Amino acid sequence: MEEERYIEIVTTYSPMVYRVALHDCRNHADAEDIMQNVLLRLYRFGPRFDSEEHLRRWLIQVTVRESRRLFAKPFRKREELFEEIDPNVMAAGRREETSDSGADGTILADVFCLPRKYRVVIYLYYYEEYSVREIADILGKKESTVQTELWRARQKLKQKWKGETKHETAGKKAGNKTRSDDCTV
Questions:
Q1: How far is CA 82 from CA 97, 115, 154, in A?
Q2: For residues 137 and 85, what is the distance between their CA atoms, to the nearest angstrom?
Q3: What is d(CA 80, CA 102) in angstroms, rounded to the nearest whole number?
Q4: How many CA atoms lie within 13 A of 54 on its CB side?
Q5: Cα dihedral angle (145, 160, 107, 19), rounded to 10 degrees?
Q6: Measuring CA to CA, which of 9, 47, 79, 165 is 20 to 30 A from 182?
Q7: How many CB atoms lie within 10 A of CB 66?
Q8: Residues contacting 16, CB < 8 A, separation 6+
């Protein structure tokens, strides 16, 4: 691969690779390691791509595989993730980054609270705008599995939001601040 093309790919796609890795592992250091491994693999092997979409899908596939490989290591199975990011801090950073309304950051924080297997599927579907079929191809899963994971993730988010609405209503009556910032989805 030519060095100019590699630099162009890194500057264009490294934020996306980082976000996918971060959604999967919720740890900045691990996400950076995964991104570095993916980009190193691209540099070493330099496969030929038919289009930009082909390149993008390859990067996401390798990112997801690298993340799985990280969590499959024996020491990671026994290790507690002490430095997992706080979803509310991540949401605040996302709000500043996109300058959208506060609701987008709250939604992102709630997505970060989902179990690992749901976070990446939700991210690819809603943030990267892939179809169920494309997500299934990227992740190496059946379409029905992806649909089920999307449905379950949506149900968990709905359940969390209904619970917050009840807390907000009760808090207004009592005059308390009630936004629950925990990750009980």
A1: 26, 16, 27
A2: 29
A3: 31
A4: 5
A5: -50
A6: 79
A7: 23
A8: 56, 59, 60, 128
The Cα diameter of the chain in Å comes to: 64
pLDDT for res 151: 93
State the distance between the two ends of the chain, measured CA to CA, in whole angstroms: 44
pLDDT tens track for 121-176? 988 898 888 899 999 998 889 999 999 999 999 999 888 888 776 655 555 555 55
- Separation CA 38–CA 17 (nearest Å): 8
Tokens of 100: 């959208």
82-126 residue pLDDT tens: 444 444 444 444 434 444 444 556 777 788 888 878 888 988 898
Q: Please answer whether residues 6 and 43 qualify as being in contact, where contact means their C-beta atoms are separated by less than 8 angstroms.
A: yes
Structure tokens at 69: 């490989």
CB 151 within 8 A of CB 48: no
CB 171 within 8 A of CB 178: yes
